[in-house]
């Protein structure tokens, strides 16, 4: 009778590292401002930090050989991607 070998990864397994309990945060709507706020398990508002904005764009570039008076050779096309991100703290 042939025995199937154990999968190779099982020999590398070990117990999970010790963990700590993370505080519970809940998003709620502020009844006065109608804006979402985050509160902790004690009902205190938690500041989550700023969130920046970013923009991205794709700029196509095309080159055509010849002087334009007649059919030319091959056309080459490429594009350049730009990415800008605000620095917020």
TrEMBL record:
<dbReference type="Pfam" id="PF14408">
    <property type="entry name" value="Actino_peptide"/>
</dbReference>
<protein>
    <submittedName>
        <fullName>ATP-grasp-modified RiPP</fullName>
    </submittedName>
</protein>
<dbReference type="InterPro" id="IPR026496">
    <property type="entry name" value="GRASP_targ"/>
</dbReference>
<feature type="compositionally biased region" description="Low complexity">
    <location>
        <begin position="53"/>
        <end position="66"/>
    </location>
</feature>
<feature type="region of interest" description="Disordered">
    <location>
        <begin position="45"/>
        <end position="89"/>
    </location>
</feature>
<dbReference type="InterPro" id="IPR025843">
    <property type="entry name" value="Actino_peptide"/>
</dbReference>
